[in-house]
């Protein structure tokens, strides 16, 4: 047992205790459990939302991309900036509607807007299929961090089990209150760690940021800009747009907006978030610093860049603190995912199949679903092969398919019918699945087009297919649902 | 739709324009490759811009009371 591990375990135990105490004095009904009784102020909402950008993916993946890909990494700060600007206009409307109709999950929103519980079941399934792989990446990251920080003495599998058990316990007890409290510790730790590493490493190894980039530039003149083909400017722009559209479409992110007390919370967040998101820059700096210091990492090993350079530079106790921050970045989004999937399974799927179920039963089932989802995720994290990689790539594109139907539903005169919404999502999701599994790009689908279009993110194709069917089917089914639609509009 | 809200498009357009026209490493500004510097500047700028949009938002006051 080295000092790094001791520190990681102390932080983990503290996080669990903090998560459990968050329940204190609250009657944990489903509304408290999944959306915190809609009573969270700016800071908690801020931290839950910020949890979304500081996940293990950004911690390890962000530095890994900087190390392995260079310039294209910049898309990460750009899409979050675009997403926050969108959030200013999007989230207050979503929140108000959710509050008015007492919604608890993302699927509830679609059920209410399109007046169709079955659309809710479909949206839930898309969400769960998207979220579970996301949780798998978090757990994989957690396993990597602990095994690296223990200098190999603890296996990733063991670490994954411990992490999954910890998060299951506090989610079952405290729901989203637990996530909010661990998010506080997580953000303080991650801020300290990332700022320290991102400032210290370039100075320590290169004498400063500018000279670090000059050294990298001298070695490879194009590495720090976007390449002319492949991840080119047109890839960059289309990816920034697509990812920004998908940003709030994750069921757990969408659902955590319901926790706010006030619509202005989101407007204030949109002002502060862009600055806060710049902390990601320092994650990139760590990855860039590693290029010339720990060379030779390729493929998925580039994700180790941050840990490898840290281990090469610091004493074990510093590694312990870095490791703890890394572990918490997996637990917070992990806990939100567990809770959202459990709520979706219980409220939006089980309840539709068995409409006679009482609220108490739904509440119970939601909580019992937490360990079930956790076990399934751990199983796939440990045993998943190639198919998981495909699923991971799909997750973001899958949830992005919910965006068109959501956007239209916020407009005053929504022409989209529930059939149109369903058709759009279904064809979009099918396109995503085909394109990912067959490993297609715009270039391979339409080889006769100019390079600028070939480089577009292939997710654009799915979104266009989605929109096409959404519009056509809505027009065709307009007469069937026009009477219902007006009824719904009057209700609003 | 009040016109001030259109300001929100400025950083987004800035990001896209940057990717196309400032896709270059040099000059290094504030220690960063030029494209990265430009994108960071757009992000930083979005904060005061959204603050202005907020100040002139007709929905701000009524939502405060909810």
UniProtKB/TrEMBL annotation, chain A:
Main location: membrane
Protein keywords: Membrane, Transmembrane, Transmembrane helix, Transport
Protein localization: Membrane
GO cellular component, one term: plasma membrane
Membrane-protein topology: Multi-pass membrane protein
CDD domains according to UniProt: SLC5sbd
Xref: Pfam families: SSF
Transmembrane regions: 6-22, 43-67, 73-95, 116-136, 156-176, 188-207, 232-250, 271-297, 317-345, 365-382, 388-407, 419-437, 457-476
GO molecular function: transmembrane transporter activity
Family: Belongs to the sodium:solute symporter (SSF) (TC 2.A.21) family.
Descriptive protein name: Sodium:solute symporter
Organism name: Heyndrickxia camelliae
From TrEMBL, chain B:
Record's keyword annotation contains Membrane: yes
Domain of life: Bacteria
InterPro entries recorded: DUF3311 (IPR021741)
Keywords tagged on the record: Membrane, Transmembrane, Transmembrane helix
Transmembrane segments: 6-22, 34-54
The name this protein goes by in its record: Permease
Organism, scientific name: Heyndrickxia camelliae
Taxonomic lineage from the root: Bacteria, Bacillati, Bacillota, Bacilli, Bacillales
